């Protein structure tokens, strides 16, 4: 990354912090509760002479100081730099809250109409979503809340998701205790219905907004950061098969591997992922394409001043392991890989032939009934469930639509032309691409 690109990323990062502060302020002004991560700080500010931003700053400074005592090597310059770099981010976020609270309180009159307050809550949550999406794009620094949780994880050797959830719940519980204690058990202003509504909105909204921020990548001017980097691995001819459920992708993959004398990888990858992560094969198989827990965690307990892709949940860990395994297999020799977003993971491989299979509903149902031997009820459920999970997983990690035909070299209707003809067409394309590579070399 060049110095110019790094500077631009920091500009976007600091801009996103200011936007996040504005979003938090607007949600708070709506007087329907504030965000989970800010609830304790706001509740303290209501019962002390300190402002919301001041308490936020002091609270985060405590978190930063706590991290220092958890450092294993207190002379580690990189760790110390990461620690002290949180201070300017915290300062800007806190100042943004106070400045925006002052401006909004002077512009917005006392709110008595509930629907008006609810509208402000929705708008504030949307602004938060935009700020978080920008922060994800910047991808240059940590903020105090997330860094504290990661430090605790390292110190206690516990999973990030568990510690993060406990941390956020602790802040909400602290807000409730302070509110009840200071009002003689009559009111908790920082935790209300708006806390839940706003939190549930931000996760999905970030997912909707993020794909439309391509202009930010153009502003950076450099290459977009990749999720996994394995160095300069050797390129080998590879066929990746993305498919709808019931299209016969696995059968086609085996046919291609046999006809072209290539190695075939599908369920075998599960064993390698399990070894990479330390999870059992059963767990890896059950969860590798699922986002249920990660989505729930992000939507309900996400720290809004934290990039979504910084929190390594179990789903993230499985994806990282899967990507490492796929890149390693592709570097070892020519092969066929079915599913798992391999086309995106190997997008830097010029010898990769990317295939997408689809078929009519009737054709897929027929295959499920007569080849997979499923009942009609189970077949319909599986077709819907697997396609939905694969699309969500691909959208989350590839930041793209799995059905976008422009991402593939060849898109085939396996029901209309049959697997045998699909195999012949792919073989021709594979050989053509390989021959071109040899001629250019």
Mean pLDDT, rounded to whole units?
Answer: 82
Instruction: Kindly name the structural category.
Output: mainly alpha
Low-confidence runs of at least 5 consecutive residues: 223-233, 291-312
Number of helices: 19
**Helicity level:** 55-70%
- Number of strand elements: 5
Gross morphology is elongated
Q: How big a fraction of the residues is strand?
A: 5-15%
- Rg computed from alpha carbons, rounded to a whole number of angstroms: 25 Å
Run of helices and strands:
HHHHHHHHHHEHEHHHHEHEHHEH
The largest pleated sheet is described as: 5 strands, parallel
Distance between the termini: 29 Å
- Biggest sheet strand order reads 2-3-1-4-5
Write structural notes for this entry.
A five-stranded parallel β-sheet has the order 2-3-1-4-5, sandwiched between helices. Helix 7 crosses helix 8 and helix 12 packs across helix 15. The chain is 66% helix and 5% strand. About 7% of the residues have low confidence. The protein is elongated, with a radius of gyration of 25 Å. The longest helix is centred in the N-terminal third of the chain and has 27 residues. The protein is mostly helical. It has 19 helices and five strands.
């Amino acid at each position: 990354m060049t110095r110019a690109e790094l500077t631009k990323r920091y500009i976007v990062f600091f801009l996103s912090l200011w936007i996040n502060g504005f979003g938090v302020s607007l949600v708070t002004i709506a007087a329907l509760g504030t965000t989970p991560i800010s609830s304790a700080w706001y509740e303290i500010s209501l019962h002390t002479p300190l402002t919301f931003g001041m308490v936020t700053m002091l609270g985060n400074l405590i978190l930063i100081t706590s991290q220092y005592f958890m450092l294993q090597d207190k002379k580690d310059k990189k760790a110390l730099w990461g620690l002290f770099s949180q201070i300017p981010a915290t300062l800007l976020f806190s100042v943004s809250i106070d400045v925006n609270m002052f401006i909004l309180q002077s512009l917005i009159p006392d709110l008595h109409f509930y629907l008006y307050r609810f509208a402000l809550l929705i708008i504030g949550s949307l602004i938060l979503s935009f700020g978080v999406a920008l922060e994800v794009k910047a991808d240059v620094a940590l903020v105090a809340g997330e860094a504290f949780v990661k430090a605790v994880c390292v110190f206690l050797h516990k999973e990030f998701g568990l510690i993060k959830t406990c941390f956020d719940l602790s802040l909400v519980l602290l807000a409730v205790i302070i509110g009840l204690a200071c009002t003689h058990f009559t009111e908790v202003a920082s935790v209300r219905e708006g806390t839940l509504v706003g939190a549930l909105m931000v996760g999905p909204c970030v997912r909707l907004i993020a794909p439309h921020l391509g202009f930010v990548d153009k502003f950076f001017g450099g290459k977009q950061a990749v999720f996994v980097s394995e160095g300069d691995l050797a390129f080998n001819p590879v066929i990746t098969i993305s498919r709808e459920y019931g299209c016969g992708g696995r059968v086609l993959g085996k046919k291609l591997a046999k006809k072209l004398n290539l190695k075939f990888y599908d369920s075998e990858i599960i064993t390698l992922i399990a070894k990479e992560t330390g999870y059992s094969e059963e767990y890896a198989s059950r969860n590798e394409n699922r986002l249920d827990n990660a989505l729930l965690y992000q939507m309900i307990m996400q720290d809004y001043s934290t990039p979504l892709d910084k929190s390594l949940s179990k789903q993230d860990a499985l994806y990282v392991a899967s990507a490492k395994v796929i890149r390693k297999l592709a570097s070892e020799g020519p092969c066929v890989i079915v599913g798992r977003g391999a086309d995106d993971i190997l997008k830097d491989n010029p010898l990769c032939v990317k295939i997408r299979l689809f078929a009519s509903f009737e054709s897929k149902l027929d295959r499920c009934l007569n080849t997979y031997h499923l009942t009609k009820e189970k077949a319909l459920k599986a077709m819907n469930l697997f396609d939905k999970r694969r699309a969500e997983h691909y959208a989350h990690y590839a930041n793209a639509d799995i059905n976008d035909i422009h991402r593939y070299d060849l898109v085939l209707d396996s029901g209309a032309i049959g697997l045998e003809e699909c195999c012949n067409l792919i073989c021709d394309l594979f050989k053509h691409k390989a021959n071109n590579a040899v001629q250019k070399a």
